[in-house]
Specification:
Protein name: Cytochrome c oxidase subunit 5B, mitochondrial
Strand order of the largest sheet: 1-5-4
Radius of gyration: 33 Å
Order of helices and strands: HHHEEEEE
Low-confidence stretches: none
Subcellular location: Mitochondrion inner membrane
Strand content: 15-25%
Pfam family, one: COX5B
Number of helices: 3
Shape: rod-shaped
Mean pLDDT: 81
Helix content: 10-25%
Structural class: alpha+beta
InterPro entries: Cyt_c_oxidase_su5b (IPR002124), Cyt_c_oxidase_su5b_sf (IPR036972)
Keywords: Acetylation, Membrane, Metal-binding, Mitochondrion, Mitochondrion inner membrane, Transit peptide, Zinc
Number of strands: 5
Length: 126
Amino acid sequence: MAARLLLRSAFRAAKTCRAAPVPALTRGMAAGGIPTDEEQATGMERIIMKAMQEGSDPYNMMKPKEYAGSKVDPHLVPSITNKRIVGCVCEEDNTAVVWFWLHQGEAQRCPSCGSHYQLVAHELPH
């Protein structure tokens, strides 16, 4: 009997009260959704992202371009000073690294294999 009364009262309540329609699910941000990485980036991260979009590599994160290593087309080595130490793996399967100082000016040769390297000026983005 109690079950019938509860069922009847629930049925009457459903007839008289109309529930408001539930709005469709939307994305989290009111202005058009979740912001992209470019929209969220600030500070140094934003500077790096803009530089990468323009095609430059401010912190040498990408693989360096390959050069012939000849006197005409030497390997370019960026540096913020007028000299830098360079390591050359002269042969593809060699495990030893030949280290030498590279100074600003004309291209210099590796003392072991003869590949040419040239120092180029590099400025930090900040």
